[in-house]
Amino acid sequence: MVFPILPRPCHPRGPSPRRGWSGRFALALLVAGCSPAAVDGSPAHPPDGGGGAPTEPPPPAACDASAADGVAVFASDVDTGAPQAPGAPPYAIDGCWLAYVAAREAGDASGALRLRDLGTGEELLLAPAAETPRRPALAGDVVVWEATDSGTRVVRVRRGGQTQTIRGPFDHAGEPRVEGDAVVLTGWLTADESGDTDVFLYEIGEEEAVQIASGPGQQRFPDISATHVAFADFSEDPDGRFDEDARDLADIVVYDRRTRRATRRSREGKQSFPMLGAGERGVAYLEWAPFHPEPKFEQFDLRIGDITAPADGDALAASIEQSGRPYVLPEVRGELIEWVERPADGNASLRRRPADLSAPAVEVPGLSAFELFGPSASATITVLAARSPGGELELRGVAR
Fold it and tell me: Are the beta carbons of 161 and 155 closer than 8 angstroms?
């Protein structure tokens, strides 16, 4: 099918400065209280603190994996009773910046969203617990997340001390991902959670997000790189949506941000949850073919291929088993693929394999005694939440 694309040029900003000074400078400004008013009526969350802003960017703070150890996090929507509530964990890391939903306090239904400099331990409040923040994503000094505003699901974005709600021609929005100065998200065209959805791209500084893909049924679960957007298209599915249905069908579609053209990567069965973190040309995704277990995330294949090559050549990276919740997706970042394996008759483990599949998967040692939540990774650090029997849910950092 043809995906209608709005006739508006896309201006990719290029790769984000993963470990440059811009993020640290932004946090320094925020901690100093230099937070401009939010636009479009969205609430701003000014930080605590005072003093003058630095006159020049401070040097980047060094950090190692252990700096994330012991940070208490809230399980958010990845540990709910809904079997089909998978997705990003309630934390994200980029360079030495960690965005996370903190453990909830007494009387709160959720935790607050915080940004921590792992090099210094300084923190900034991004969103209060009352907004039930979840699914954070991070690129440089840009943070995006889902929140609830007057009962409606929205996507917030914060950069340079300014927080705003992303607006667009949709009823509500979610599932954000970010790269550089651009955010990709899913927009629901009606209030119906099972209804029609499209994929939207928002460039920071613009008035609103623009539709980059539409069609019958749902287009969902987008990811973004400096050059492409990828998403799952359910237009071929009998009911047109992602749900608990053994007949589900879907394909991955790749959208070129420069040419504004969409290319379907057709395969038999169902492919969903694309991931664009393996270099400029790599695309990974989950596949259910030919059988669909229910809940789906108890067993699936992880495949990876070249965006410019036919999908029938995509390679099997791993066959993954997760017996029971939480269902959190694998992480594909740089030269590594990482995922949590949770067999029915053994301990959970964090598995790791080169993205070029040049070596078999190996287990990351030291984590087998814990209940594990899914990974998030920067270029040098992987974080995941771990819980001992009866203990708190806390982050553990692992060098990459």
Answer: no
